[in-house]
Amino acid sequence: MKALTEKIQGGIDLKPSEVGYAVTVLLSDQIDDLTKAAFLTALHTKGETADEITAFVQHLMERAVDPSLDPKQLPGPMIDVCGTGGDGLDLFNVSTTIMFILAAGGAAVVKHGNRSVTSLCGSADVLEALGVPIDLEPEDLRECLERHGLCFIYARQYHPAFRAIAGMRKRLAGANKRTVFNLIGPLLNPARPSRQLLGVYAPRLTTIFAEVLKRLGRERAWVVHGSTDTGGGMDDISICGPTTLADLENGKITTGVIDPRWFGIAESSCAELRGDHAAANAACLEGILTGEVKGPRRDLALVNAAGGFVVAGLAANIPEGVTMARAQLESGRALEKLRALQGYTRKSSR
Length: 350
Known about the structure:
Blueprint: H1 2-9, H2 16-26, H3 33-46, H4 50-61, E1 78-83, H5 94-104, E2 108-113, H6 123-129, H7 138-148, E3 150-154, H8 155-158, H9 166-174, H10 181-184, E4 195-199, H11 205-215, E5 220-227, E6 233-234, E7 243-249, E8 252-258, H12 278-290, H13 296-312, H14 318-331, H15 333-342
Parallel strand pairs: 1-2, 1-4, 2-3, 4-5
Antiparallel strand pairs: 5-6, 5-7, 7-8
Helix pairs in contact: 1-3, 2-4, 4-11, 5-12, 5-13, 5-15, 6-12, 13-14
């Protein structure tokens, strides 16, 4: 492992076989955290390549629990919506909010997520606060998705090998040090959805992630990074400024810019979109679905859901997607999806 660390420090990229060895060492409880942290820090300082990220994902997916979801049994196109986190903005849970809007509009949403590592509230935290069961076994996961058109895949449950690095990741996050594990969470959905809306914390990552998603066999994906009025960026489609986009469709990657002002969405300040801890974010999410929360937070959910509808192939463009998203909120169908998850009972409990 020290030899690989020295190689990276020399600016040399890792081969897939070397990444495979590194993954084995990182997930071993026989290697000390300092050695692991040194390797991960050196790799991030060098800058992870598309080849390295792809290899990490492939080797980690071999250790994941496969929920065995059959796309042919689903009510619509399978899609995941998530972000890398790490933008430091602590917004409300945007991708978790829009999973209900997308499911109401006909997508089969396999939302992959975890508890908070770098933010105040992760997707698992906010769903748990809403009373949604987050730890479904594969049999229940399949039934929930087939019956309701959405499910939550809890990363800690479906990636048990990660327990070996949980403490180290938390310490590195506390020291504000990023690693490849801050990047690859959205790429590790064990359901392997064919479509994905993925937000990244830095604009340079949009094309890198699109290339990785291409190598992982995604049919359609958007990788987005939004700008803010404070000069930073967000791992969502922004309503505070333009959004950088890398669009993967049928093996071809194109780049572009999205500006919600072109679609009649008012520009907002980042401060108006901030979230809080789980209880507050749960109230915000539910308020958007009930119609009690309006303004910038609702607008941010609308434009991100619109992007999801385009990626899912259910809308031709963002304006059409915004119209679809608004209809799911105003009709109450998105709220019905939340209620369905809140009321879901495991087969073993019936």
